[in-house]
């Protein structure tokens, strides 16, 4: 029983740290991503990306879709989704290797 209490205490401590540190980390990332000067740079980057797609001969629809994907990589949600998706793909690959 003593070991279970010790483990429960450790889990509680970890959760307390996570609950205070994760919001700080997300706020920091959000501030870095959404500063006005960063927004200007992103807009210029997105416009240049779209222009390059059109110059490469893509039609409007394909260039637009690729530009949307490009923009999603710069959103906080997109980054988190990519990170989670990458972790799940790695885990699935590791599980397949174990078989």
Would you kindly provide a written description of the structure presented here, covering whatever features stand out?
This protein is mainly alpha-helical. Helices cover 89% and strands 0% of the residues. The chain folds into 2 domains: 33 residues; 64 residues, no CATH class. It has 4 helices and no strands. Helix 2 packs antiparallel against helix 3. The mean pLDDT is 79.
**Global outline:** elongated
Largest sheet: none
Distance between the termini: 36 Å
Q: Could you report the average pLDDT, rounded to the nearest whole number?
A: 79
Number of strands: 0
Oligomer category: single chain
Summarize the structure.
With 99 residues, this protein is mostly helical. It is built from four helices and no strands.
Helix and strand layout, with pairings?
Elements: H1 2-33, H2 36-55, H3 60-72, H4 76-98
Structural features:
mainly alpha, 99 residues, single chain
